Amino acid sequence: MKQQRMTSLVAGVALLLGCAPLTVIYRGLFDWMIPVAFTTALIIGASVGARALRWNAVLQTLAMFAALLLSCTWQYSNGGALLGLLPGPGTFKNFGVLMGQAGEDIQKQLIPVESTQALVFLLVVGIGALAILTEVFVSVMRIPALVGIPLLLLYLIPMPLLKQEIPWLLFVPGALGFLWLLMTDNIDRVRRYGRRFSGDGRGIDRWEPSPLAGTGRWLAGLVVLAALVLPLMVPGVNSNLLAGIGTGGGPGIGGDGSTLAPWANLEGSLNKTSGAVVGYVKTNQKSDTGYLKMYALSELTEDGFSDKVSPSSLSYPAEEGLRTDHTEEVESDEYRAEVRLTGLDNNALPMFSYATNVDLDRDVSDEWDFDPVSDTVTSKDATSKGMSYAFDYTRYQYTDKALRTAPDVSENSEAYRLNTDRPAIKSVKKLTKERIAGKETQFDKVRSIFSYFSSKNGFKYELQTKADNSASDIENFLKYREGYCQQYAAAMGWMVREAGIPARVALGITPGAKTSKGYELNTDNFHAWVEVYYEGFGWVPYDPTPASGVAGSQDSDWAPDPNKPDESDSGDEGNNNENGGDNEQGGNNEQNPNQRPDGSGNTYKPPPLAARLPAPTWPYWLAGAALASLAVITPGVVRSLRRNRRLSLPDSRPEAAAESAWRELCDSLTDLRIRFDESETARSLANRLIGEYQLDGAAAAGLRHLAAAQEHSRYAPAPPTGLTLRKAVRAARFGLAARQSRFAQLRADLAPASLLSSWAWGLRDASSSVGNARTRGARALGRLIPRRRSTVTR
C-alpha cells in the first residue's frame, strides 16, 4: 500500500509538470498554478484515503469527484456554500455564471490571457478531470503508462489556441515526470517479488540498478529524444509564407531576451468572430495616413519570411530621438499622432513610418529602443499594454516620376546585403524574369510585380488557402492564387528580391473606423504589407493585398490598386490569354473575385493577422484514422492467420495436426477468458466445458472429437473418424463463444489474449536479450581497459 501511495503522488506531480505548456496561455503563474495544485492534491489524497479504507474502484472514483466538487466549492462558491464547504443551490448557479464569464473572457482577451477568476475556474475543472483520469489509470486500472495520454493532451491543447509553435522545452517537464512515474511503478512491481538478484546470483542492493532497469531507462531516453526530434522533421501542414514563431520567453519576447516574436500576441484569442479593440490613434493628418508599423521582417528562408526578429546593433534608446535618412527631393509634410493602447500587449509600438521622435512616460522611456535599420521601436523587457504616447512623423509624397530616377541599389549597401537573400526556386525565378522583362528602371520592375497580384491574373482574397504538400508555400500560392495578406505580402517581397531589389515585409495595424477617440485599432486591422528600398528615397510601402480584404485599406499614387477598372499596367503584356490573365481563372470576370458576392468589396472582413489558416488537414485525419483502424484490427487479423496456419496441417501428419488443433482450442479458451488447467486431461476438459456451458449438438461433438484426437495422437497411431479437426475447432469455438457476452466476443476478436500475451513475452525476452547483450558488452569493454593500479607501497 505504501508503494501504491508513492506511485499516486508521483503521478500527481507528473501531471503538474505536464502543465508547463499552459504558461504560454495564462499570465500569472502562481495565480492559476496554486488553485490547480491544491485541487490535484485534494483529488490524489481522496484516492489514497479511499484505498486505505478498502473501498472498491467505484467508490474510489466517486471520492475523487467529490474532492473536485469540494475544491471548486471552497474556492469559487461566492458565498453560496453550506458551512463554506458543502455545495448548495447557489453554488452551481455561480458555477454557471463563471462558465459564461469564461466564455466572454475568451472572446475579449488576447493570448496570453489574464488569470481571471472565471478562466482559472475553467482551468481547475479541466485539470481536476485529468487528475481523476490519471488516478484511475494508476490506482484502479494499474496501468500507469496510460498517464501519458493526459500529459500529451496538456501539450497539444494549446496548439489550436496559439496558432504558433509551442516551445519544445515545455514538453520536457511532463516527459521527465512521466519517466519518473514509470520508474516508480516498475520499482514497485519488482519489489513485490522480494529481493532482487543479479545474473550471477549476487544480491542487489535496494537502489542498485539492474541490467533490465538500465536497459529500460536507456530505451525510455531514446523514446523521449525521438519524441522531441521527430516533430521537427515532419513537414508543416499550414500554408503560410511567413515562417515560424519565436520560442517566446514572455509576452512576445524571446527566451534569450534579445529575439522578438512578432506574431506571439497579435492574434485575436481563439479565432473569435468579432474583433477586439486594442487602442486608438489620433493624428492631425486628414487622410491617407498610411499604416502603423510594428515589425520589419528581413530573413527569408524556404519556408517564407521568418518572424524571428532581432534588433540591430545600431539600436539606441528611443528617448534620444529617431534618426532617419531620407532624400530632400521628395515633398513631405510633418504630422503628429497620439496613440492610446488599451488591449495590445506586445513588445513593439505601433507607429507611422518615418517617425522623427516619440514622447514616452519617464518611467518607461528608458525601456524602449529605436532601430534605424527596421524603423521600429521595440523593447526587450517591457510591453505596450495600457501605454499612451505621442510621436511626430514625416509623410513623403512619392511620385512615379521621382521614383523612376532612383538608381539601382549598390550591392555593397546594408539594405541590399540584408534584404536580397532568397532561396532558389525555379518557378519563382521564371515568373519574375517574365514580369520584369523589358523594364528599364527599378520602379517599373517593382510596379510590374506589384500589378501581377490582380484579379485579371486570377488572384482572389480568400480566408482558406490551398496547398499541394509536394510544393513549397510560395509555389502553392502562385499556383492556386488564393490567400490573404500574409501570402500576398510575402510573395511580392520574394519576387522583388528575385529581381535583385531589396524588399522586406512589414507587420502592423491599419487605422480602423474613425470615432470621437480617434481611429479605432482593432484585431481585425492587423495587416502585412511590403517595403521596397529605393536608393536616395528609403523604404517605400506597397500593399499587394486586394483592398476588399483589408479593413482600412489605403491606396497610393505610386502603387494604385491594380484591381480598379481604370488601372492599366504595361507589365501584363506577357500574359498567355487574350483576356489579359495568364491562367484559365483570369479573363473577363463579370464580378471582381476579390469582392463579396453582394459586391460590397470594401466590407469584406479579414481575419486577425496571425490567424494561421492551414492547408486541408483531412488527408492527415484520414491517414490517422486508417492507422488507428489498422492498429485495432491487426491483432485479430494476426490471430486469424495463426488459426488458419495451425489448422492447415495435412492428414499425413495426424499426430502434429491433432496437437496443433488442441493448442488452438486452448488459445480460443484463453481469448474468451475461460479458465482451464493445463494439467487437466483432454477428455476431462471437454466433458467439463460441455457440462458447465450446457453444450450440445455440433459444439459438444466438436469438443469430444478434439479430445479424442488429442488422446489418440499421444497413445494410439490412428486418429478418430468423423469430423475433420478444422470443423471440430470451429464448432467448439462458436459454441463456447455463443455462451459469452457480446463484449467478451468482441474482445476475443479484437484483443485476443493468447496473442497479446505471446507478444508481451516476446518483448520481455527481447528486452532481456538487449540487457544481457549490454551487460556482456560492458564486461568485455572492462576487460579491454586495464584497471588503474594503486601505487601506494606498504
TrEMBL record:
Residues 593-603 have a biased composition (Polar residues). Pfam families: DUF4129, TgpA_N, Transglut_core. Residues 308-329, 548-610 are annotated as: Disordered. Residues 477-546 form the Transglutaminase-like domain. The keyword Membrane applies. Residues 320-329 have a biased composition (Basic and acidic residues). Residues 573-592 have a biased composition (Low complexity). It comes from the Bacteria. Keywords: Membrane, Transmembrane, Transmembrane helix. The chain crosses the membrane at residues 32-50, 57-76, 118-138, 145-162, 168-187, 216-234. Gene3D superfamilies: 3.10.620.30. PANTHER family: PROTEIN-GLUTAMINE GAMMA-GLUTAMYLTRANSFERASE. This is Transglutaminase domain protein.
